[in-house]
Each structure stands twice: as structure tokens, then as C-alpha cells.
Amino acid sequence: MNRNRRQTKDDKITFRIQENYMKELRNRAEENGVTPHIFSRMLVQEALKRERENEILERLDLIEDRFDEIRSDMMQFIKEIFIGLGHVDEEDFQSNISGKS
User: Fold this and answer.
1) Residue 92 belongs to some domain of the structure
2) What residues make up the domain containing 30?
3) CA atoms within 13 A on the CB side of 100
4) Cα–Cα distance between 98 and 81 in angstroms, integer?
């Protein structure tokens, strides 16, 4: 324990689990070469980390969706400018965008 920090009640988590889960916890802890206490801590930390990562991935998906909307809006805007200025007609614009000659 860090000497600069006093332990408080909030530093410990105690809970009961069903015997079948306790057996599984002991087995998995032993397989990983740690105590059930340490393995429990690892499980909680991994679950919290995974939850945080999932939140980040969800936000990235939202950003990607918004980026796609902006890209589509920009293409529509560029199309309207080129067609409006008489540089190309709609068919030429579409074929140039899709890479057809």
C-alpha cells in the first residue's frame, strides 16, 4: 500500500458470490497463477476497461456516420455548383465521380 495514502472504507470491495462461481473463480485464478482476490480485481478492471473501450468505439461510429453525412452534403454542394455554373451536366458529373469516362 502507498504510504502517502491512507486506506479508507471505499478502497475495499467485499461481496458474496454463489459457491459455483467461487469454484470457477478459484480454478481460473489458479490457472493464472494468482489468488482469487487478485483474479477478481483483474476481472473487475478488465470489465471497466472494456466498457470504456466500447463507449469510445460507439463514439467513433457516431463520428464516422456524421463524417459520411458531411461528405454526402459536400458532394451535393459541389455538384450543384458545377451544374449551376454550367461546367458540366448532371450525367457528366455522375460519370466523373464514379470514375467512368
Assistant:
1) yes
2) 16-98
3) 6
4) 18
Q: Is the model's pLDDT at 2 over the cut of 70?
A: no
Q: Does residue 3 fall inside a structural domain? A: no
The total of structural domains in the chain comes to 1
Residue 79 burial by Cβ neighbours in a 10 Å radius (0-12, 13-18, 19+): middle
First to last CA, the chain: 71
Whether pTM exceeds 0.70: no
CA angle 85, 89, 90 (to 5 degrees): 115
- State how far the Cα of 77 lies from the Cα of 91, in Å rounded to an integer: 16
Residue 43 identity (one-letter amino acid): L
Instruction: Tell me the pLDDT tens digit for each residue of 68-93.
Output: 999 999 989 988 888 888 878 888 87
